[in-house]
Amino acid sequence: MLYYLYATPVASVIFVLTIALSLYVFSNPQWYTKLMLHPYTLHRDKSKWYMVFTSGLIHKDWMHLIFNMMTFYYFGFGLENMFVQFSGALGHMLFAGLYVVSLILSDIPTLIRQKNNPGYYSLGASGAICAVLFSFIMFQPKAMLGLFMVIPIPAYLFAFLFLGYCIWASKKAYDNINHDAHLFGALAGIGLTILLYPWSIGHLIEQFF
C-alpha cells in the first residue's frame, strides 16, 4: 500500500478521503441530508452544486463502502499508474479529470429525471468507479483478479458482472444508492478514455483478436 501512496497520489487521496468521509457520516448521520445528491434542491438552488461531489464521497453502509472501495482498489491505482506511463506526470491530472468528470456525467441523467421529485436522494461513488473500471479494461481487459479475494476472474468479465448487478439493483432497490449512475459512469469512462487515448480502441480489439 505504501507504494500506491507515492506512485498514485490522486487515487490514494480519493481512496482515503472517501473512506474517511463515509466513516464520518456513519457516526454522524445528520450529515447525510447535507451531503447527499438531492436533484429537487439542486434544480432550484444552484448554490448546492457541491452535492454532486460530496454525494460521491459518502456511502450508505459498510457493505456499500467495501464493495466500491474494493473495486476502486483493484482498478483505480493501476489505471492512474498506466496514465502516468502513457503521459508522464500529466497522467495524474488526467486520472483526476476522468474521475471527477465521470462523477458529474454519471449523475446528469438522475438530475434530469428526478428534478421534480422532492423525495429522491442518492449517494455513492459508483458512477466514477464504473468509469475507472471500464477505462482500465480498455487497456488490460484480460488482467486477472481474485473475486472475493479467491476466485480468479478476468477484468472484462468482472466488469460486466458488476454492471449487470447494478442494472438489476437499479430496478429492485429503494436504498438511496444511485444504481442508475453505474451505466452512465461506464459509458463516460469509455468515452473519456477514447478522447484521451484514441489508440485504446485498436489496443482493446487486439487483446481479443
Provide the spatial order of strands within the biggest beta sheet. Answer: 1-2
Please indicate the count of domains: 1
Radius of gyration: 17 Å
Number of helices: 11
Mean pLDDT: 87
User: What is CATH's topology name?
Assistant: Rhomboid-like fold
Strand content: under 5%
Biggest sheet layout: 2 strands, antiparallel
- Overall outline: globular
What would you say the CATH architecture is? Up-down Bundle
Low-confidence stretches: none
Oligomer: single chain
Q: Which structural class fits the helix and strand makeup?
A: mainly alpha
Query: Would you state the CATH class?
Result: Mainly Alpha
Q: Strand-and-helix sequence, N→C?
A: HHHHHHHHEEHHH
Helix content: over 70%
Spell out the CATH superfamily.
Rhomboid-like
- How many distinct beta strands? 2
Pfam families: Rhomboid
Protein name: Rhomboid family intramembrane serine protease
Family: Belongs to the peptidase S54 family.
Transmembrane segments: 6-26, 65-83, 89-108, 120-139, 145-169, 181-199
